[in-house]
Request: fold
Amino acid sequence: MRIEAQQLARRFGAFVALDGVSLSVGEGELVALLGPSGSGKTTLLRLVAGLDFPDSGQILFDGADATAVPIQKRQVGFVFQNYALFRHMSVGQNVAFGLEVNRKKFQMTGRQIRERVSELLRLVQLPGFENRRPHQLSGGQRQRVALARALAIEPRILLLDEPFGALDAKVRKELRAWVRGLQQKLKITTIFVTHDQEEALELSDRVVVMNHARIEQIGTPAEVYDYPATPFVWEFLRGTTSRELAT
Reply:
């Protein structure tokens, strides 16, 4: 699925969240939205997801206008930083949730849904976890369940909002490498939001550096690290100590 954002603008009262942002994401590409808090990256992600709508501008999916399409019809998988799992449900019920509430759309029997849940839990390396509760899982395991739930509806686009921010450093590094491998295996178009420079440089095909509601630079990790386009990009990335991250 190709994504095109054209001159997107969004205000919240006097606050400008996005100011004429344009971005293209190719089929199967993994793009990082990198920037400090308040730069507009999460707002942009929410507009692509259909969780919010722009004041002006356009969003295209494979060339078709999706600007006003509701989230239920966008076939987008969304993973949040805090997992957003239902505590009163088992792991299996959490993963099956999107399929159950849209059973008529997916035309799946109860048995087919259970088989799909088992398949997804194997995919995220949690086989046999169907009957466990979220509180019985580690942070990394909960994030894998959240990812399995997002993938259950076979989304055309995967959106990740600070997906590793609540994890400790060791687990975060292991999980992001695993997510990158899974994304490449599934070849699903993915956008993820982060304020972590190392994470963006290590994980993405391209990095979109944002600041004050605008895009400062778009390029491969090597391009934005070695050839920063603005003083802000240079300043924001200079905390990354290893040039190997950008190769």
Residues 240-247 have pLDDT under 50 and may be disordered.
